[in-house]
């Protein structure tokens, strides 16, 4: 069966005045199910509030746009209230309860990418709401709610009867929400647009890698991530994940071209990618991208907390490590052709600026 790696856009699942929740469907993007990966987006309008919930999947959240507040409760821990803004990456292990709130005029948009290997549905996140019409209060009988929370039956009926809202609501501007605390941010999130660069190549591109060193909590999530900013017309070296990890890529800004080569040297994907699209590179497949004139940014998760990549072009590539005799024998070409091949890309690595 041929793999369908075509990039896809998310589709709206639910929403209202407060905002909307979007997700990528494994029926339309089969690699989600194949790779046990979930992908979704939360978009909150001003005063939009995403009701408290927990998920059946560990995730990495990435703020694509705007600023707001995130409430996070780790198992058996106190609530942390984080100030969040564009560029923030947040690790969300199993069992975490979260809520999200936007008090600004600009729409707050958060991307979620995660592992669904233990989820109810492979390739999809399932959220369990604490409140709302589909929350736990509506499922239990009044007797159980009364006993569990030591409440009078009249109070229970009021609580259960008021749960008419679903998922995302719009709060009255006068509603007071917890103020975020900067000290709660440390260790819980990392801003990928402000963090020290792991790669910085003039006229080529920049990379910030999210791993257990700069955000230890990703070790509990079991995923690594990176933010790549590719300059206009620059190229990202062909490469592959050499530790059997999948690469799940969301285009944050700009557009460009991508090619993926798989088994038996077959080109399995050649297309134009643009902001908002998501695609997945299977294990050991080789991928390369070229940005359009305005450049291209993408956020990726890799299904291991400390990913390792092998690049096939540039100063640090495997080709540069192989001896000339092996290259000549492998290519089956005269020495002068092998020498021309080996003499190129001795200075650049990973990203290649546009040709003059």
Automatic annotation (TrEMBL):
Pfam families: Cupin_1. Residues 3-157, 195-339 form the Cupin type-1 domain. SMART domains: Cupin_1. Gene3D superfamilies: Jelly Rolls. The keyword Amino-acid biosynthesis does not apply. Coiled coil: none annotated. The keyword Disulfide bond applies. One of its GO terms (molecular function) is nutrient reservoir activity. SUPFAM superfamilies: RmlC-like cupins (SSF51182). InterPro entries: 11S_seedstore_pln (IPR006044), Cupin_1 (IPR006045), RmlC-like_jellyroll (IPR014710), RmlC_Cupin_sf (IPR011051), Seed_Storage-Functional (IPR050253). Keywords: Disulfide bond, Seed storage protein, Storage protein. CDD domains: cupin_11S_legumin_C, cupin_11S_legumin_N. Belongs to the 11S seed storage protein (globulins) family. This is Glutelin type-A 2. It comes from Sesamum angolense.
């Amino acid at each position: 069966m041929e793999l369908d790696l075509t990039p896809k856009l998310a589709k709206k699942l639910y929403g209202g005045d407060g905002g909307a929740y979007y997700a990528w469907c494994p029926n339309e993007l089969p690699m989600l199910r194949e790779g046990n990966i979930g992908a979704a987006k939360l978009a909150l309008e001003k005063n939009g509030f995403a009701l408290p919930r927990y998920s059946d999947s560990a995730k990495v959240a990435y703020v694509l746009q705007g600023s707001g507040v995130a409430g996070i409760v780790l198992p058996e821990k106190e609530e942390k209230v984080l100030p969040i803004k564009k560029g923030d990456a947040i690790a969300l292990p199993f069992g975490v309860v979260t809520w999200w709130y936007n008090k600004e005029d600009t729409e707050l948009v958060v991307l979620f990418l995660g592992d669904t290997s233990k989820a109810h549905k492979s390739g999809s996140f399932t959220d369990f709401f604490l409140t709302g019409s589909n929350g736990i209060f509506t499922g239990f009988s009044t007797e159980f709610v009364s006993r569990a929370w030591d409440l009078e039956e009249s109070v229970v009926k009021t609580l259960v009867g008021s749960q008419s809202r679903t998922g995302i609501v719009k709060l009255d501007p006068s509603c007071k929400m917890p103020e975020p605390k900067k000290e709660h941010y440390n260790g819980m999130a990392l801003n990928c647009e402000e963090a020290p660069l792991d790669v910085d190549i003039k006229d080529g591109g920049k990379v910030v890698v999210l791993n257990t060193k700069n955000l230890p909590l990703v070790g509990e999530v079991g995923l690594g991530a990176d933010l790549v900013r590719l300059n206009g017309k620059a190229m990202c070296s062909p490469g592959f994940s050499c530790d059997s990890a999948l690469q799940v890529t969301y285009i944050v800004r700009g557009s460009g071209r991508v090619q993926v080569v798989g088994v038996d040297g077959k080109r399995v994907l050649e297309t134009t990618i643009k902001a908002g699209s998501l695609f997945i590179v299977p294990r050991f497949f080789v991928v390369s991208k070229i940005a359009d004139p305005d450049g291209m940014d993408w956020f990726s998760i890799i299904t291991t907390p400390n990913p390792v990549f092998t690049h096939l072009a540039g100063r640090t590539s495997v080709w540069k490590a192989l001896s000339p005799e092996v290259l000549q024998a492998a290519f089956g070409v005269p020495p002068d052709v092998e020498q021309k091949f080996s003499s190129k890309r001795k200075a650049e690595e990973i990203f290649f600026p546009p040709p003059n």
